[in-house]
Prior knowledge:
By secondary structure, this protein is of the alpha+beta class.
Amino acid sequence: MPPPIPSNEQRLHPWSWLFALQQQVQQFLLPLVALLVFGSRRDDDLPYHHWISAAIVVALVATAVLQYLSYRYRIGNDALSIRSGIFERTRREIPFARIHNVVVHQNLLHRMFGVAELRLESAGGDKPEAEMRVLKLAQALELERLIRQGGSEAATTDQRSDAAADGVLLSLDLPELIRQGLISNRAMVVVAAAIGAAYQLFPRRATSDFIEEQGRHAFGYASQLQLGTLTMIATGILLLAFALVLMRLLSVGLAIVQYYGFRLSEADRRLTVERGLFTRVRSSVARRRIQAWTLREGALHRLFKRRQLRVDIASGGQQQEQDGRALKELAPLATPAVCDGLLQHLLPQVQWPPGQWLPVSTRGWWRLCLPALFLMGVLSALLVYETRSAWGLLPLLWLPWSALKAHRQVSRIGYNIDAQRVAIRGGWWNRWWRVAELDKLQALRLDRSPLDRRFGTATLTLDTAGAGGAPALQLRFLEEAQARTLMAQLEREMVRRKLRW
């Protein structure tokens, strides 16, 4: 028998003001540091910058404490009631049925205090419906369970033992995490972000001078060694290989930090993902909220015989996308058989993989080469103008590869539509498969560009509620008559079906 649900209002954890203060300090950290650094350079005897900094800190502490004192929540039979606000008071009633995604977040500080942050997200919107900073971990998990079961009524009527202990669908061990790091290019993104941050935090002139000075030192040191041309080339290749190895090792470390303890489980028709070495993130979403499914397979994936399974959910916004808390990856890395098995298990009424893929028109495949042709042409013209030699034409060597890639991409585009779902595949070097249930379609769009009118083709775009993943859920290079027939067929299916999201 589940414990009774309290009917009175409750507060957050007594230490919640500390975590609210932490978030506010992070937002004002750079202005405070700038005030202390630049204010301390003045020669006057009045340390006004210290008083201003102290006043800002006191104001932040007071705001955090008042937020804690004014925040109340109450768990009802089928909804969560939240009261908050200091001067402008608000009350929000959030039905459990409207909550699409539940995120339990724990960083190192949370784990030290035995607490967690709870986020409740609904369809659409750039902000969560509620952010509860912070609750005891047991309270956060209990509230997540109540939302997962639909409230107290569902919890009391369902007599399954422990809500049918979560069935684990997928877990990643250390070798899989190492493969994930070797496949991903996450380290390059981190290094690029670090370089960009350095240019923002430090004066550009000082950063450029530092890079030039270090380059001169390295070049001077190499000149003193009096190395031959072949030796210099070999040394450069070795340094490049060493840098690539370091990048891959960094990617492996980042993959372990992000996906350590990864576990995908299913209970009460909800999917739950737990992951993270230092910061633990637990995201839960109802299966019916998933709008589209995406399988991805790059060149390195094929080398390791692995794939990735991602989903688009009708909830969220940009914030959780940026901080990595959104439930997007059901299988960051798994074998093709495991990914296909997960898709078949979670969509039992859908046949996967399809028995046959219908092709599209291959006329005008070279259209995909036009961006590369324009960019390489402009770059070559600039290099020829600057160097006054034929070496400036080297970028044009990229065009044969671009043409081969474009032809193979168009040749591989295919689709399959049955009574339950639409499936689209594309890509060649980096392959992908997109699947959406017909019950989730809410809009169709037929586009014809000038080149489409020239070649008698069209693009059919399918829109689901909240699915904004990439690549787009669209069929390109369809024959015009074929595109209009498919659009009419899908329109009839949309009219007779009830939208489920």
